[in-house]
Specification:
Elements (H helix, E strand, L loop, with lengths): L1 E2 L2 E5 H8 L3 H9 L5 E4 L2 E5 H10 L2 H8 L1
Length: 67
Amino acid sequence: KKLNNVVLFSREDICNLFGVGANNGQALFYNDEFPAIKVGREWCVEENALIQYLQERHILSELRAKN
């Protein structure tokens, strides 16, 4: 989704992106370190916040190395 040119990922998007099921995806959103925000009734993650979260944990470099 886009909100004023900001890309937001839903829980379903995050599950698909990370290749995890609904329970593991939901656990991410309950993790205090995960950059989730509530927009209305739905939880989302802003694209830049997700990239920063992954970079800080070196997850992106590990994923790129596998591909």
